[in-house]
TrEMBL record:
GO terms for molecular function: copper ion binding. This is Superoxide dismutase [Cu-Zn]. Residues 41-169 form the Superoxide dismutase copper/zinc binding domain. The lineage of its organism: Bacteria, Pseudomonadati, Pseudomonadota, Alphaproteobacteria, Hyphomicrobiales. It comes from Sinorhizobium sojae CCBAU 05684. Keywords: Plasmid, Signal. Belongs to the Cu-Zn superoxide dismutase family.
Length: 172
């Protein structure tokens, strides 16, 4: 009888005042603009206990490998060539191939297919939604796609070329 009671109690869920062990992640989104100000894709960012998962889909990009970074300001003004997004998020040396790197905004290069679409799924353990290296500090943050591949070592920001797409990261 005790086993049956314990089983039924477990099925009922947590007692009043107790929280579930796992909760749904916080979510943020970004809409990518090209240099003409047209929407060309979206990103979903999910906060986890260990960092942020970024998933994105973009279209109408030049085929090939592109640098992909988190920039330090949540402003994407095409009229400035997206200079409004500032530099890469974080301090310290840039790149996965340098001993002191990478800084918080460094992400792996992404490839646009021959049809101009880019599918992204990257994880960044150096950023968060709240706390240290928050994507939601006073001036926010943005995701940026660059014209060419990042070499993961050139200072201060790699060799990704000019930004060609930018998306302001906003909480849901």
């Amino acid at each position: 009888m005790r086993v049956v009671f314990a089983f039924l109690f477990a099925l009922a869920g947590p007692a009043a005042g107790q929280e579930q062990a796992t909760t749904a992640p916080s979510v943020a989104r970004a809409v990518f603009l090209n240099t003409s100000g047209e929407s060309i894709g979206t990103a979903t960012l999910k906060s986890t206990p260990n960092g942020v998962l970024i998933e994105a889909k973009l279209a109408n990009l030049p085929p090939g490998i592109h640098g992909f970074h988190i920039h330090e300001v949540g402003t994407c003004d095409p009229a400035t060539g997206f200079e409004s997004a500032g530099g890469h998020l974080g301090s310290g040396p840039h790149g996965f191939m340098v001993e002191e790197g990478p800084h918080a905004g460094d992400l792996a290069n992404q490839t646009a297919r021959d049809d101009g679409t880019m599918l992204v799924e990257v994880f960044n353990e150096r950023v968060s939604f709240d706390g240290e290296m928050s994507l939601f500090d006073d001036d926010g943050a943005a995701l940026v796609v660059h014209a060419t591949a990042d070499d993961y070592r050139s200072q201060p920001a790699g060799t990704g070329g000019d930004p060609i797409a930018c998306g302001v990261i906003e909480r849901d």
